[in-house]
Amino acid sequence: MAANKNSYKKSSFGPAFFFLDKLRREALADYYEFCRLMDDIADEPDVKDPEKQLAFWRAETARIYEGTPTTDLGRRLQKDVRTFGMLPDRFLLLIEGMQADLTGRTYRTAEELDWYLLRVAVIVGRATLDILGVKGPQADQLSWELGCAVQITNIIRDVADDKALGRVYIPSDLLIKYGLTREAVLQDKIPAKLPEVLRELATQAEAHYQKAFGLMRLFPRLKMLPCKVMGYVYLKNLAKIRKEGFTLLSAPVKLTKGEKLRSVFYALLKTIF
After folding, report:
1. Where are the domains of the chain?
2. 188, 202 contact by CB (below 8 A)
3. By C-alpha distance, which of 222, 228, 219 is closest to 265?
4. pLDDT in tens, 88-147
5. CA-based diameter of the chain, in Å?
6. Which of 45, 100, 105, 269 has its CA 20 to 30 A from that of 113?
7. Out of 9-23, 121-135, 154-168, 252-266, which region has the weakest mean confidence (pLDDT)?
8. Are 217 and 232 spatial neighbours (Cβ–Cβ below 8 Å)?
9. Is the dihedral of CA 46, 48, 50, 56 positive or negative?
């Protein structure tokens, strides 16, 4: 299922794109449409033959760079990659991450989880910074810190939803540290110590947020607005999860629309003033 290419404009994140020129706004919409499509292929239960669909988009990525895409999205992305110098890994690594979800890849250590974070979050940040015109080693470091922060927040928030899909992203060695196992999480035999695991992950995420906000000061303020919005919204969500005691076994703790909007406008104020 393809995402609406203009859906970002209707979301609470819309103000983050206000200061961008039309070409950059459209390129971000195209890339986020691709990301949403890959995510749906991996997660939606009614998708037919998801591995075949990922294989199609792997081949379509090659065609984008060869100048022969066969889809409307591919043709739009062809224009974007040429305009903003986006490398093929911005697409191929994301597909690898979705493939890992489909095959049930597990992660024993934080280092193994880093492999996944790079593919499903960090690379999205690098593509975003390409489009914003921010490149180089410090930009790569920013994408690493913010991508890890956001994705670890997602892992914490979505424990229940991921469990329903048969997935546990928490590294096994961290679970073992608190006397837990992946199987216990999947089978609902979850002791009271799971919040302690999630609290430790949250501390890791908060360290990544702190480093990311520090790196943002190195770049032009308005170019950092989408990054700041993303960072403040997800950090606020993490703070809400922490306040509620990491009790996420039945459903995720998410921001209300009002809470998200307040975080967006806080990011606007921090950028402009």
Report:
1. 16-100
2. no
3. 228
4. 999 999 999 999 999 999 999 999 999 999 999 999 999 999 999 999 999 999 999 999
5. 55
6. 45
7. 9-23
8. no
9. negative
Structure tokens at 185: 């999480």
**CA–CA distances in Å: residue 268 to residues 53, 58, 67, 216, 271:** 38, 37, 38, 14, 5
Q: What residue type is 158 in one-letter code?
A: D
Which value, to the nearest 10 degrees, does the dihedral of the CA atoms of residues 223, 229, 234, 240 take?
150
Whether the CB-CB separation of 5 and 253 falls below 8 Å is answered with: no
**Distances from the Cα of 127 to the Cα of 67, 131, 167, 228, angstroms:** 19, 6, 26, 16
Q: Contact, 180 vs 193, CB < 8 A?
A: yes
Distance CA 60, CA 50 (A): 15
Cα gap 44→128, rounded to integer Å: 25
The token duo for 96 is: 């690898």
Q: Helices 123-132 and 89-103 meet at what angle, rounded to 10?
A: 160
Question: What are 30's two structure tokens?
Answer: 């195209």
Residue carrying the six token digits 């960072």:
231
Rounded distance between C-alpha atoms, residue 208 and residue 220, angstroms: 20
Structure tokens at 119: 């593919």
- CB count in 10 Å sphere of residue 240: 15
What pLDDT digit, counting tens, does each position of 55-72 carry? 999 999 999 999 999 999
How many C-alpha atoms does 45 have within 13 Å on its Cβ side? 5
Cα distance between residue 215 and residue 138, in whole Å:
7
Q: If you average pLDDT over residues 27-34, what whole number do you get? A: 94
